[in-house]
Amino acid sequence: MKKTIVAAACAAAYACGAHAQNSVTLYGLIDAGLSWTSNAKGSKLWQAGSGNVTGSHWGILGRENLGGGTSALFELENGFSVTNGSLRQGGRLFGYQAYVGLANDRYGTLTLGRQYDPVVDYLAPLSFTGRHPGGNNLSMHPYDNDNLNNSFRVNNAVKYASVDFAGLKFGGLYGFSNEAGGFADNRLYSVGASYANGPLLFGAGYLQANNGGSSNTDGALTLTDRSFIAARQRTYGAGVNYLAGRARFGAVWTRTQLGGLDTINGANGLGLVQNGQGASFSNYEVNASYAFTPFFSLNGEYTFTQGTLSGADGEHRPRWHEVSVQADYFLSKRTDVYAQVSYQHIGADGAGLGADIGGQTPSSSNQQTVVGVGMRHRF
């Protein structure tokens, strides 16, 4: 729940009545907990963590009514670690988002700055890992290959989001390279749409990033943001959710194709993908939630991922199986406690890859289990 604070006290130059139309909103979420990992580089691991399920963050959202159905708006959103107070997203003060723009009741919203892409806006909420508010870090698809868990944001971005047309919403984004003579060197563009009709909600999105191993650190993506460093990344997919009383059921399909792949997660520790060869991931997720009471719900998902990875010793086709089950209990409208178990297994032709549940230390074997308990508070 967000609470609105008045941006400034009434002054002689301004009428107090203007505050009814102009506002600054402070909001945030803190997630702190404990987790146990069955295999972290060959050892069991107990640890305290920040954002085991939902990344801890806070933000400021401002809006000024310009008249005629048009408003100026801005948002500054910070990610941090609650365990040690450090900044996340590569040490950025506002690593989640930082943008300014205009919104119109008829024509939609145009914003400029560091922002989420339309795959995150329109498709991710239909998945368990990207469902808002908050998402679920322990349930991301391998290496968050489709960005449904929002591992990266887009710099230098111009973004448009439509108004709601009888349930239909759509948008697009372009992140500039900001490089003289290199218009396509480290750029990103993305489109997405969603449609709500009664108990059904549909969503789809497409994203393409051209970044490679470029030395252009001022482009759309930075090294600390990228899940992959590749000459080209294409991600696309679609999903559906169905609401039936207290239950919610969902299915999501995504595919990511990588050309000229150099590293995964910013390091070549895998030792498999090298020499600028390619890779692809196809993710098939089903998820469900059921609210037993207004305060207690049980949530879960299963994802099957087909991978193709090219290395110096030929082509490999690993298969990932992921299962997550979460119990969530709200102590109030703003505070909840949760317990979650996530399991990942890599099947045939895993090419020596260790299981790697999102946000955890990779396993030395082809399977890994993580048990997490924690508390979240929203303000």
From TrEMBL:
<keyword id="KW-0626">Porin</keyword>
<feature type="domain" description="Porin">
    <location>
        <begin position="7"/>
        <end position="344"/>
    </location>
</feature>
<protein>
    <submittedName>
        <fullName>Outer membrane protein (Porin)</fullName>
    </submittedName>
</protein>
<keyword id="KW-0998">Cell outer membrane</keyword>
<dbReference type="GO" id="GO:0046930">
    <property type="term" value="C:pore complex"/>
</dbReference>
<dbReference type="GO" id="GO:0034220">
    <property type="term" value="P:monoatomic ion transmembrane transport"/>
</dbReference>
<dbReference type="GO" id="GO:0015288">
    <property type="term" value="F:porin activity"/>
</dbReference>
<comment type="subunit">
    <text>Homotrimer.</text>
</comment>
<dbReference type="GO" id="GO:0009279">
    <property type="term" value="C:cell outer membrane"/>
</dbReference>
<keyword id="KW-0812">Transmembrane</keyword>
<keyword id="KW-1134">Transmembrane beta strand</keyword>
<dbReference type="InterPro" id="IPR033900">
    <property type="entry name" value="Gram_neg_porin_domain"/>
</dbReference>
<feature type="signal peptide">
    <location>
        <begin position="1"/>
        <end position="20"/>
    </location>
</feature>
<keyword id="KW-0406">Ion transport</keyword>
<keyword id="KW-0813">Transport</keyword>
<keyword id="KW-0472">Membrane</keyword>
<dbReference type="InterPro" id="IPR001702">
    <property type="entry name" value="Porin_Gram-ve"/>
</dbReference>
<dbReference type="InterPro" id="IPR050298">
    <property type="entry name" value="Gram-neg_bact_OMP"/>
</dbReference>
<dbReference type="Pfam" id="PF13609">
    <property type="entry name" value="Porin_4"/>
</dbReference>
<dbReference type="InterPro" id="IPR023614">
    <property type="entry name" value="Porin_dom_sf"/>
</dbReference>
<keyword id="KW-0732">Signal</keyword>
